[in-house]
Please model this.
Amino acid sequence: MSVFALVDCENFYASCERIFRPDLKYKPIVVLSSNDGCVIARSKEAKQLGIQMGVPWFKTKKNFLKNGGVFFSSNFALYGDISNRVMNILAGMANNIEIYSVDEAFLDLENMNLENSDIADEFAMHCRSLIKQWVGIPVRIGIAPTKTLTKVASYLAKEQTKRPGIFSISNNWMEIASSLKKVPLHEVWGVGKRLGKKLSVLGLRTAYDLACIDISLIRSRYSVVLERTVRELRGETCLQLDKSLDPKKQIVVSRSFSEKITRIEDLFPIVNDFGVRACEKLRKENQLCSKAGVFIRTSPFRIKDKQHSASKFFTLSSPTNDTRDILNGIRKSLPIIFRRNYPYAKSGVMLMNFSDTHVKQYSLFNADNLLKQNDRLMKTIDQINQKENLIRFASQSEVGYTAFRKTNVSPRYTTNWNELPRVNE
DNA sequence: TCTGGGGTCCTAGGACCC
DNA sequence: TCTGGGGTCCTAGGACCC
Model:
């Protein structure tokens, strides 16, 4: 019998900021996206102030600060490190774990007896207090027979007063049904905005309504994906824990600009930066790519502006992770899609069609030994830059895209010697 | 003035093969 | 008048997730 747990860090980025700032314990906190563009995380208090997820910062800033709110620009070095610490604890608590995102993991609790709800609750409480004590992050835990139901449980765990942050559902239709009735349709894992709209036209309101629908209807009118969701809601395990350490299938580095760019001379250094960064990621994954592309677009929010969005992909003559190959491709591709006098707001570089470095396919027209030298060159550059970004390509921007607007970044408390927290005597 | 970044999977349709 | 059957691979687009 399958049993899964979902461990979900509450208000993750905001909670991370709070670890080293106990003075902010009951204050509303928001964390902003790059360029301080919009709100991407909110503490409980910020949610209570009515700050919506994804709202543009400039629209809510004044009101939020007036109410005593504190904001942070995103500090992914900190969040990544805290995430690792949480995941390490979880890895020690279950035979198998799937790290689903920076703030969420599924645990395989195979053989746990869910009929006795005390067992599940005790496990969850132990897990919760350990993470709180060792890392300082509050988590919510849902336990259920399918992954989709753990999401339901986690949602219901929010409202628990007896055992806050914990909820379990056993594999019993009566119990599942009563849980599902409390969950609105759009909260179901796998039902997004569009599907939610379509399904509500059919009169569905809750997760329970969806679970009761005729499977063959779902299959013929929607997709196999939604069919799995329905089956999982009924307690039938369709999704297993994904333990594979599959390599990525695509790497994207993209940013919005703090100021619109209209000249290709200004665009090139930034896009090249994206290319350099993307190749670093690719080498870290021990992969080669045989296709890459660049895209640019204007801001869809500025309706009065001329709009343009375009991408251009190029195929590499042989699979590569050599930054120079990608920069070459960008140099040829960007002018093809670029249009003069359009206010570009965002661009990015994508790498795809990966293959393993061990199975490198050499080109008929390149000398093998040259490729080996390139490998060593790239490795050396990576090693040097890992400590301090000293080596740059001439075509990269001098300041780098990291120079984009950030008005209030917290220190990298746990990953940089110079930014360790200080204790006053 | 100012609106994030990075992923995955599925499907339909076209090109091509024998 | 009549025009096969069974595949694979690739791409673009749509949906979802955090």
Observations:
- Residues 32-38, 40, 54-59, 61, 74, 101, 223-225, 248-256, 258-259, 299-302, 345-346, 348, 405 of chain A lie near DNA strand B (CB under 10 Å from a C1').
- Chain A has 14 helices and twelve strands.
